[in-house]
Amino acid sequence: MLLSAKSPPARRLYQQVADRIRAFIRDGRLSAGTRLPPERELALQLGVSRPSLREALIALEIDGTVEIRMGSGVYVCSPQAMLEGETPALGESPSELMQVRSMLESSAATLAAARVGRQQLERVKECLEAMRQDGLSGRTMVENDRRFHLAIAEMTGNSILIRLIGDLFDDRHSPISSRMSERTENPQAWKAAFVEHEAIYLALVARDPQVAAAAMLHHLQASHARWSGESVAPGG
Q: Is the dihedral of CA 140, 143, 147, 150 positive or negative?
């Protein structure tokens, strides 16, 4: 029996974009201390979306190739000798993760609203109240946010869906997602997220699948906008 070799994993788009920027530095088009072009201009030059460029710049910041100075720009800080090789994988693309979560969890909310029971609603309500207390005390809501989304997934009765939603949520702890969270999460963002969670809960109470799906989709799209909408380079 012949054993087929596994194909190497495809390189994520942010890695490919980061590699191209590293090549600019390596061949001398961008030297140490140089400010990169504004985000909009650089995205057009590379032929990529601004969210993909932001992820690439975050990846380059993590490995020390560039420094992102909020309100000033992105600056090259690595000498050419340090730029051999490719940009390492730092987790899944945050933008792609949120796109997949939007598709899966809006469908999960549809099923949940059709199947929800009293005890399950109480569990979601407890998660929501715990998030409220987190906000009042200045703690991060991440753990109770996870419990909230998993409680809704469990209403579907689909073990695969539950596992996928949990795994996708936990990908927020990857190096690239964690760094983006550090830049975008703040009390105001969590306050907005809480209001969105409350709307999801009320749709479940009403047992309205369509409204529940719409509320979940709105929440995840708004989260995506908060997470990836910050411009890391001025003038973009």
A: positive
